Each structure stands twice: as structure tokens, then as C-alpha cells.
Amino acid sequence: MTVDSHGIRFDRISDRLVVALGPRDGERAGSNSTIVLGDDATMVIDTMVSPALMLPVKAEAELLGGRPVAYVFNTHGDPDHLLGNGLFHQAQVVAHAKVAELLADPDRREAYEKRLAGANDAPLRPPDITFDDTYHLDLGGVSVKATYVGPAHSVADTVVWLEEQSAFIAADTVFNGLFPLIREDLKNWFAALAHGTELRPRVIVPGHGPVGYAGTLERQRELLERIHDAVRDLYSGGVPIDEAVDAPVPESLRLPLAAERWPGAVRGIYHVLDQASAVS
What we know:
Layout: E1 2-3, E2 9-14, E3 17-21, E4 24-25, E5 28-29, E6 33-37, E7 42-45, H1 51-65, E8 71-74, E9 92-96, H2 97-104, H3 106-115, E10 129-131, E11 134-138, E12 143-148, E13 158-162, E14 167-175, H4 186-198, E15 203-208, H5 216-236, H6 241-244, H7 258-279
Parallel strand pairs: 7-8, 8-9, 9-10, 14-15
Antiparallel strand pairs: 1-2, 2-3, 3-6, 4-5, 6-7, 11-12, 12-13, 13-14
Helix pairs in contact: 4-5, 5-7
């Protein structure tokens, strides 16, 4: 594994697959970017939180492929997975239709563009190609199959299967070694993890944290279940939401970023439980 001056670590999984692991800052792990090298074309999956961070990833992709990157794929619409898109002037950007909808929202677009201030040669780039359910692409010896699994972590979540590499790009349906960022819909999140498990991948690339292998998806599912059960116990016990968000994180769940993300998980799960209660 090599480390560049920005703290990005390149994990070479095979001759066709290299994962750029986002830099660490205390408990926080930056978003990962994946380089996929086909015989005919190179794809980069997710472009981190800024063009500056993506520069060494772009350079590595071009060096390894011996050509410009042809495709950029965004797994969802959060800024830390797409603000580097504008570096790839010769590439087509591919994402779920929900990503295009998010970037068409004036307020969101303005917020993202503010984060790109000063990156004049790398403007905010929405997708050129969108899809609704699945997307297939042959890079030459590497087949790419993207499947929409949202809303889970976000409304636009997409996972990517690289069959020849037996690699599952889980994106932000897996936070490896970190407390996950939960907004609401764990039902679809569990379904996304089940989909990945059925593929029996050898390699799991999370949205944040180190590359995972056998057992990573199961561990993420178990963690989500424990978080859900802990919040449900508060809800069932009649604890008001304002008190629940301030409740201490259960000791078994005190992973990096737990204190920061516990309140959001409580609010999201309480909202789903409220909806279920109203229906019943």
C-alpha cells in the first residue's frame, strides 16, 4: 500500500482494481474512490470531497490505465462522493437519476458550489448518463453492474458489482470500523447488504474505512440491527425523542463517530417507528 502527500492510501487489490482510501482525520475517515481498469476503458467510482483530493487519484488512474479516464460513476449524491467530478473533463459521469435531481435543486447546488470555490477548472458536474434501476457497462474484461438500493443511507444509494474481480462496491451502505451515518430507512439498507451477500464477493469496498473481505457485510448488518434495537428500546420505553438523542451511546456501539452520529440515528429511527405506529 502506498500513501500520497494528501494522506490518501492506494490499496492495490489486483491489476484491474485499486482503491484510494480517503485520508484519516482523528476518528473520521474520508470517502473512498475506486479505480477500475478494463482493457478498453478506465472507470473511477466516486470522486471524494474536493478536486484537490482527487488529483492524485486521477493521476494514478491515468498512469495505470495509460489513458484518460472514460467514465466516472457516483454511488450517491452526497458531496464527499462527487465534488471531484469536474476534474475529469474527458469522462462521462454516470449516476442514478436521483443524483441528477439532487444536483438540480438550487439550494443544494449553491451549497455544493460554495464548497468548490477556488476550483475554477473543476466545476460541479452532474451526471451525463442516468438510470433508474440498474446500469451495465463492459470496460473490456471487466463488467460493471450498478444497482439502485435506495433510499438507505441516502435517497440515491447505488452499489456496484464487478463480477470478474468478485468485488462489491458497497459505497455508504458500509462504514467499515465506523459508526454509520443513519438518516432513516434501515429496511432498504438491510436489503442492500443482503443483495451484496448473495453475490458472495471476495472484496468489499466501503464508502469509508478500509477495504473489507469475508464477513464485512454481515458485521455491518449486525451493527445496524444493534443500533436499531437500542433505539427501539428507548422508543418502546416511552422516552421522548429530545431525551433519546441525548441518551448515552450504548457501550457496545461506541465506535468512532458514535457520539456525533447517534442523535441522527435516533431521529431517523424514531421517525420510521412513528410512521409504523400511525399505520397500525
